[in-house]
Amino acid sequence: MYNHTDNPPLFRALALRRRHPLLTLHSLNMLHARGFLAEVFNILARHAISVDLITTSEVSVALTMDTTGSTTTGASLLTQALLTELSSLCRVEVEEDLALVALIGNKLSQACGVGKEVFGALDPFNIRLICYGASSHNLCLLVPGGDAEQVVRTLHSALFD
Q: How does DSSP assign the chain, residue by residue?
């Protein structure tokens, strides 16, 4: 039987993934440079790492690694070999103890007021990274690990109650 609704809810679910490291790669040569991201992704591929979230500026790239599919041993993806190879290309900053909060919805990128509704509720919290727009079905936030459960509770209360 096919289930269909003419009026699907804007927000459908929240998901939380703990221990989500953030790498910020700073390159003084990145402004107007070509190939920097390609080389970063080549290095990550050589180390069997899949990127989960990414955001860029003129001279830096911040990204998280998909820790669910990259390794099955439970070992850290942030090996010394990886950090050494990245460091030959740029300055590497690593932040750990972060958590990914994903808000899943329907046509979020086509709805007005999503930012106000979500970020208004999260005013008391530090949000380290925001990824929105690559998919119309989710908005992802990186928050301090110690705040993760309260962020999820706050969003649930504001968006679903």
A: -----SS--SEEEEEEE----EEEEE-TT-TT-SSHHHHHHHHHHHTT--EEEEEE-SSEEEEEE-TTTS-SS---S--HHHHHHHHTTSEEEEE-SEEEEEEEESSGGGSTTHHHHHHHHTTTS---EEEESS-TTEEEEEEEGGGHHHHHHHHHHHHH-
